[in-house]
C-alpha cells in the first residue's frame, strides 16, 4: 500500500509593520495653520515696510511739496546730495555716533551678561534692573535725561558741583552733546543686548568649560578658547542689529529729537533727523524719499559685506 504525504505547508510571509502615514488632510491643515501664524508678520512687512519702500523709491524722482503737488525731476534729487553740506554734516555725525556707540554698547552689554550669567540671590532683580530702561518709551527716557542734565539745576549738575563741573552744559555744548547722546543710548540699550548675550551664553556647553578647567586652563583661557568662539554668531547679530538701529532706529530719531533736536550747532543732527526735517519741516518730500533710498541701500550693502566677510560671525569655519 502506497502512502503519500502532503507537502509541507509554506511559512506565512513575514510582513514588517509600516509607519502610519499622516492623512493628506492633516498635513494640509498643519500647513494652513503655519501660514496662518506667519500671515500677520508677512502682511505687516508688506504693508509697513515693503510698500513704503517702493513708494519712496518712486517719489524720489519727483519734486513733491506739502500740498501733494508732484513734478517729475528725474535724478535731480540724487544730484542735489553731492552739494548738500548739511547732509554731509549729518552723515559725519551719524558715522561718528555709530563707530562710538556700537563698540561701547557691545562691551558694556557683554560685561553685564558675564556678570549676571551665574545664579545668585537676587539675580532676577538685577537682570530686571538692567533691562528696565528698554521697556520705557524713548520719549520718556529723553525727557528724564533732559531733566537730569538741565544746566546748573539738574541732579547731575548738583552731583558734579563739588568737582567744579556743576556749570557744564552737557546737552548745550557742541563738543559734549554727541558724547552725552552716545552714553544715554548705551544706557538705554544695554539691557536688551545683555539678554541677547545671555541667550548665547546659555548655549555654551558647561562640559567644555569644565574640561578646559580640568586641563589647567585659567579663566581668561577658558573665555578666549571656549566661550568666545561659540559666541561669535551672537556677537555678529548684536553688532549688525545695533549698527542698523544706530543709523535708522528709534534712538537715532526719537531720543535725539527730544534731547537736542539736532543741536547745538547741528552737533547731534543725525541723517534720520535730517530726512525728517526735509520731509516735514521744509516740505521737500521728494528729496527726503531720495535720501531714504540711499540710506537703505548703504545699510543693505554694509550688512551684506559683513555677512560675506564674516560668514555670519563664523570666522573660523571652513
TrEMBL record:
Where does the record place Basic residues bias? Answer: 16-25
> According to its UniProt record, where is this protein located?
Cell membrane
Q: Where are the transmembrane segments?
A: 35-62, 97-116, 128-148, 168-192, 230-253, 287-309
Topology class, membrane: Multi-pass membrane protein
- What keywords appear on the UniProt entry? Cell membrane, Membrane, Transmembrane, Transmembrane helix, Transport
Q: Give residue ranges for domain ABC transmembrane type-1.
A: 91-306
| Taxonomy, superkingdom | Bacteria
Please give an example of a GO cellular component term from this record: plasma membrane
List the CDD domains: TM_PBP2 (cd06261)
Q: Which GO terms describe its biological process?
A: transmembrane transport
Q: Carries keyword Membrane?
A: yes
Where is the segment annotated Disordered? 1-25
Reply yes or no: does the keyword Nuclease apply: no
**What PANTHER family does the record point to?**
ABC TRANSPORTER PERMEASE PROTEIN, INNER MEMBRANE ABC TRANSPORTER PERMEASE PROTEIN YCJO
Q: Which family does it belong to?
A: Belongs to the binding-protein-dependent transport system permease family.
Q: What is this protein called?
A: Sugar ABC transporter permease
Amino acid at each position: 500500500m502506497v502512502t503519500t504525504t502532503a507537502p509541507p505547508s509554506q511559512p506565512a510571509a513575514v510582513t514588517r509593520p509600516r509607519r502610519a502615514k499622516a492623512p493628506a488632510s492633516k498635513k494640509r491643515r498643519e500647513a494652513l495653520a503655519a501660514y496662518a501664524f506667519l500671515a500677520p508678520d508677512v502682511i505687516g512687512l508688506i504693508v509697513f515696510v515693503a510698500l513704503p519702500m517702493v513708494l519712496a523709491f518712486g517719489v524720489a524722482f519727483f519734486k513733491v511739496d506739502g500740498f501733494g503737488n508732484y513734478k517729475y525731476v528725474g535724478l535731480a534729487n540724487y544730484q542735489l546730495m553731492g552739494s548738500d553740506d548739511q547732509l554731509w554734516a549729518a552723515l559725519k555725525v551719524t558715522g561718528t555716533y555709530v563707530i562710538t556707540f556700537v563698540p561701547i554698547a557691545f562691551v558694556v552689554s557683554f560685561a553685564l551678561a558675564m556678570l549676571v550669567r551665574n545664579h545668585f540671590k537676587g539675580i532676577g532683580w538685577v537682570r530686571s534692573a538692567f533691562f528696565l530702561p528698554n521697556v520705557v518709551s524713548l520719549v520718556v527716557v529723553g525727557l528724564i535725561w533732559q531733566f537730569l542734565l538741565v544746566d546748573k539745576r539738574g541732579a547731575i549738575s548738583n552731583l558734579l558741583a563739588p568737582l567744579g563741573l556743576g556749570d557744564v552744559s552737557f546737552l548745550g555744548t557742541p563738543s559734549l552733546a554727541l558724547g552725552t547722546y552716545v552714553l544715554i543710548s548705551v544706557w538705554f540699550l544695554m539691557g536688551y543686548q545683555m539678554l541677547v548675550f545671555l541667550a548665547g551664553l546659555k548655549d555654551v556647553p558647561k562640559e567644555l568649560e569644565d574640561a578646559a578647567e580640568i586641563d589647567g586652563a585659567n579663566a581668561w583661557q577658558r573665555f578666549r578658547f571656549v566661550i568666545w568662539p561659540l559666541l561669535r554668531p551672537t556677537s555678529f547679530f548684536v553688532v549688525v542689529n545695533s549698527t542698523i538701529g544706530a543709523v535708522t532706529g528709534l534712538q537715532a530719531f526719537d531720543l535725539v529729537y527730544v534731547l537736542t533736536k539736532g543741536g547745538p550747532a547741528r552737533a547731534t543732527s543725525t541723517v534720520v533727523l535730517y530726512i525728517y526735517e526735509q520731509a516735514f519741516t521744509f516740505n521737500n518730500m521728494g528729496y527726503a524719499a531720495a535720501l531714504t533710498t540711499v540710506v537703505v541701500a548703504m545699510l543693505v550693502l554694509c550688512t551684506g559685506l559683513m555677512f560675506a566677510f564674516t560668514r555670519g560671525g563664523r570666522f573660523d569655519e571652513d
